[in-house]
Write a structure and sequence with these properties.
Radius of gyration: 19 Å
Order of helices and strands: EHEHHEEHEHEHEEEEEHHHEEEH
Helix content: 40-55%
CATH architecture of the largest domain: Alpha-Beta Complex
Structural class: alpha/beta
CATH class of the largest domain: Alpha Beta
Largest sheet: 6 strands, parallel
Bound molecules: 1,4,5,6-tetrahydronicotinamide adenine dinucleotide
Number of strands: 14
Shape: globular
Length: 308
């Protein structure tokens, strides 16, 4: 039997995720959205690209959340994106009202699924999905750290004129302005980045990474980034479906790690067939740990706003 991935919200991130997943023939895909006809239309369009890939993923569209039934993984993208001048936290209440009923429906129709949340404000929406669904904490995670790290990797590759494939980076913390890029854990072909990029340029790259989402929002004017977020979601889905045991930053429930608990925040994890298999405890410098905890506190404050 084919694996199945249900994508909730067939907008920019959701549809791109569906297309990438189908192209990799990783799973059958169902796109679910409240807009009548839209997910069906996009699914039909994608189906008509499959002959060109010589692959046979099944893709369908639906408006009813019951279509998540049988899904191994749920990718939750439903919600409003940012407009210029908005912070991710401006989306808190409106997106919480979207997440709650979706989490209820997933609990009812796909009680064994893994959940990858994309909706902003990311860490809080992941917490809310976990809370409402009642799912165990190893099955609910947020996608942000992979994107923030991919952005940093891309900027370093551009700076050096080298292949992004050889750049590894780690960005931790909440998916907001307080995220914590870690140049000490950034390498190019195994070489510590500080040997290749001067400190002032590295600081500028860390800043650009923190503001990378806003940079795109400002240019697009009507929405936020979607190709790179979708690709990162697909990498997470693939890690789960094919038990890859990747070491990547994801937003997960911390229970004492890094001195934080009862909140979702970006930390390094091992991601595999059992979902979040382990939280990796890095040796952080005092200022790095303080920055991570400050970022976690911002998430905790927003969780408190939602009554958590
Ligand atoms: O790193 C990250 N986590 C992020 C997060 C990177 C990029 C985008 N990020 C957030 O994802 C963004 O701030 C938004 O909260 C979500 C979705 O962004 P996207 O760019 O895909 O937004 P769109 O194109 O507006 O799509 C949202 C879709 C749209 O088609 C709505 O009709 C639909 O969500 N929607 C729903 N679908 C199903 N069920 C319900 N209730 C629903 N409400 C809205």
């Amino acid at each position: 039997m084919n694996r199945k991935v249900a994508i909730i919200g067939a907008g920019n991130v959701g549809a791109s995720t569906g297309l990438y997943l189908a192209e990799r023939a990783l799973a059958d895909v169902v796109l679910i959205d409240i807009v009548e006809g839209m997910p069906q239309g996009k699914a039909l369009d994608m189906i008509q690209t499959t002959p060109l890939w010589h692959k046979g993923a099944r893709i369908e569209g639906a408006n009813d959340l019951a279509a998540v039934k049988g899904a191994d993984v749920i990718v939750m993208t439903a919600g409003l994106p940012r407009k210029p001048g908005m912070s991710r936290s401006d989306l808190l209440k409106v997106n919480a009202d979207i997440v709650r009923p979706v989490a209820e429906a997933v609990k009812q129709h796909a009680p064994g699924a893994f959940v990858v949340v994309i909706t902003n404000p990311l860490d809080v929406m992941t917490w809310l999905f976990w809370k409402v669904s009642g799912f165990p904490k190893h099955r609910v995670m947020g996608m942000a750290g992979m994107l923030d790290s991919a952005r940093m990797r891309a900027f370093i590759a551009l700076e050096l004129g080298l292949s992004p494939t050889d750049v590894q980076a780690m960005v931790l913390g909440g998916h907001g302005d307080s995220m914590v890029p870690l140049p000490r854990y950034t390498t190019v072909g195994g070489i510590t980045v500080s040997q290749l990029v001067p400190a002032d340029r590295l600081a500028a790259i860390s800043d650009r990474t923190r503001n990378a989402g806003a940079e795109i929002v400002k240019l697009l004017k009507t929405g936020s980034a979607y190709y790179s977020p979708a690709m990162c979601a697909v990498e997470m889905v693939e890690a789960i479906l094919t038990d890859q045991k990747r070491l990547v930053p994801c937003s997960v429930m911390v229970s004492g790690e890094y001195g934080m608990k009862d909140l979702f925040v970006g930390v390094p994890i091992v991601l595999g067939g059992k979902g979040i298999e382990k939280i990796v405890q890095l040796d952080l410098a005092p200022e790095e740990l303080a920055a991570l905890q400050k970022s976690g506190k911002e998430v905790a404050d927003m969780i408190a706003e939602l009554g958590g």
